[in-house]
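Appendix B. Raw example, untouched.
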Amino acid sequence: MEKINKGVILLIKTIKKIISNKKFTEELNKINKNFFNLKQELHIKNELIVQFNSECGNDEIAISEYPRGKYGTSVDLSLIKNNELKNRVELKYQYPRGLRCKGVQRELLKDTNTLKGGYYCTDFILIIHKRFFDKKGTYAISGVEAIYPDWNDNFSEKHLSEFENGINRSFDRNVISVEASEPYKNIYHFIFYHFKSSAK
């Protein structure tokens, strides 16, 4: 079983810096304006990789869906320095109501509590996307509804805690919230979990 090295270079800090920058907010606006009727996990992950790799030195790189394990499993995002894998990051995207669903909580816990390629993830990023629109969530210029408009409850710390109680390792948590305005007001809560120990 892997032990998390306390001396690991936390390249995840660069991801946090990127998310806090104006440039990333601008890209979130573009993503939501063009893909409001889709779940945006892949779009957001790809943008993080593009910005990470454009800002970091030649000895650092972010790679998607690596490393791969058996049966088609893979780590969502890996951060590598000097050819050494430093951070194995699982990234998941949900709407506020998703946290109320036991089935969703179980799926999220698969990423925090399950070995992939023989290792646990070092970090987990949970994105909660809160949208501010009318009851149907229709984008006026198109007449098309946003995806899952009924899943747009208020963000609940209670339901987040229920998910966290199922995590099998100790962790540090912090949150970065980003407001985007296209095609309506949106708040993306990026909840970071850095695991401090091996699984129980």
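End of appendix B.
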